[in-house]
């Protein structure tokens, strides 16, 4: 391959991110940025995740297309996905080898239950048993607590999962790996590369756990601000895609509240109710300490001409935009959420 087109060779410095490739105009993330594709409301709906350490390469299907036992991976997804648990493969930045037994973590991002539960496993079939027992304990007790099993630990400190799933979309590797490396230098041991979290065109994507705050279009230089925001419980509004576990319109309303009232923490916002007035209009009531507000979300569907470099599977089901609402110049059909000023109750 011509070095100038290899995303992992810098012609001036040898191995490392190639700035020419990072800004290549045919990359989906570059095209989306140039079009101004809005990100608000694009976090995935699952409120919990099972993180599975799986070093080495991942195919397009992530854990199910890796060196992890395929039957066990399929069973994990089949059992956990209907229960609102997204299975995500993780590995250390730089493809570092595991320090002993591989690790797993159950991340609960539900409001008031935010926590990470860590454990280790030796064989893939063992993880299947542990995950099923963990889910059963959650459902039976309704508290998110798991029974003690060996050396399992509970963790509530910020963890940074950076999508670097290059076989799903090359933008994730080209943009994600430098961000993961930068974050690892700031908070060693608190950063993992992860498989697909949705929104390839918003790469680099960073998921902060256990809060479930998802960011897009993150650059390596954003690392210090992102870490500081996560550790102080606030968000970087310009990079915010949403909070996992909520419908797109609710995510957009929450993000709108954070932007309109900077002193409010996303984690302090509680969804009170969603009242649908029509197929294209919802009133979303939110609460945070000392305030209850209604956000009137009006949704429009925009048909746009084809011809973009973006693949059809990159197009969102919902795209939220603040203020007057605007449609990105992308191929296909997108949904735009219009967010007027909030009304105190």
Structure, described:
With 345 residues, this protein is of the alpha+beta class. The chain folds into 2 domains: 1-245, Glutaredoxin (3-Layer(aba) Sandwich); 248-344, no CATH class. The chain is 23% helix and 28% strand. Strand 10 and strand 11 (213-215) form a beta hairpin. The longest helix is centred in the middle third of the chain and has 18 residues, at 124-141. It is globular, with a radius of gyration of 20 Å. Residues 1-23, 142-148 and 304-336 have low confidence and may be disordered.
Identify the notable features of this structure and list them briefly:
345 residues, six-stranded mixed sheet, globular, single chain, 7 helices, Glutaredoxin, 18 strands, alpha+beta
Question: What's the layout of helices and strands?
Answer:
Blueprint lengths: L8 E2 L3 E2 L3 H4 L5 H8 L12 E6 L16 H11 L4 E7 L10 E7 L6 E7 L2 H18 L11 E3 L3 E5 L6 H17 L4 E4 L11 E4 L3 E3 L7 H9 L8 E4 L4 H13 L9 E9 L2 E8 L2 E14 L14 E2 L11 E7 L4 E2 L1
Parallel strand pairs: 3-4, 8-9, 16-17
Antiparallel strand pairs: 1-2, 3-5, 4-9, 5-6, 6-7, 8-10, 10-11, 11-12, 13-14, 14-15, 15-17, 15-18
CATH class of the largest domain: Alpha Beta
**Helix run count:** 7
- Strand-pairing-aware structural class: alpha+beta
Number of strand elements = 18
Helix content: 10-25%
In summary, what is this structure?
The protein is an alpha+beta fold. It folds into 2 domains: 245 residues, Glutaredoxin; 97 residues, no CATH class.
